[in-house]
Amino acid sequence: MNVSRKTALVTGAGSGIGYEIAKLLKEQGNTVIIAGRNAEKITKAGETLDVTAIACDVTKEADIEALVTKISAEFPELSVLVNNAGVANLYKVGENANAYQKAKQEFEVNYFGPVLLTEKLLPVLKKQAEAAIVNITSNVTFHPLVVLPTYSDTKAALHSHTVALRHTLAKDTNIKVYEVMPSLVNTEATKDMGGENGMHPSVVAQATLYGIQNDQFEIYVGDTEAQRKAYFSDPIAAIQSFNNGL
């Protein structure tokens, strides 16, 4: 799919991967809208990138409804949706871990938000000659990282949903569904989990656009492809290696 002179919406774009994807899309001649929960942060990012910025908390149905209403009215040509907003809690499951509350927060942002936003925007995307939905997941879609247990759950769930959505929409629409699975990325969100050892988010952005342009529906970035192959070769050994020392 050609990603130029399109209109794109990127969530969670105040910084990190979302910001870099929005920046690259803008550089490729696209009209870009960015959305984020923190109004001050997303406004500043919009000013820096010279794109439209909209405050939206994807855990709030009213915010999503307002965003969809604005997009439908002001950007009816929207053809690219990038679901990037995410949150992660660094901890281990066990007694007094408060896993339920952590999982609930993560699923609201990482899974339920993208599912709802995507469904609400399908009528707009279906009107375009070609369109794309891009879900940012992770290398933990295949197996969990034990210090990100419920975050891993959310990404596994979004991976499954993405596959179902891709197969469903391919039957009677022009919407293509892509999934981007990066390994460790150096962002604000990963600073407490060794993020400084990860790749720059611009690497993920570049891989994302390359993958879309070449119709790579599952886009592996960094160590993910090797980790995936290891998992399907020997799941038990791969999980042990992935969680070595944790």
Automatic annotation (TrEMBL):
* The keyword Aminoacyl-tRNA synthetase appears for this protein: no
Entry annotated with the keyword Oxidoreductase = yes
Q: Which InterPro entries match?
A: NAD(P)-bd_dom_sf, SDR_fam
What is the top-level taxon of the source organism?
Bacteria
> Which UniProt keywords are present, listed alphabetically?
Oxidoreductase
**Pfam families in UniProt:** adh_short (PF00106)
Which protein family is it in?
Answer: Belongs to the short-chain dehydrogenases/reductases (SDR) family.
Q: What is this protein called?
A: SDR family NAD(P)-dependent oxidoreductase
To which species is this protein native?
A: Flectobacillus roseus
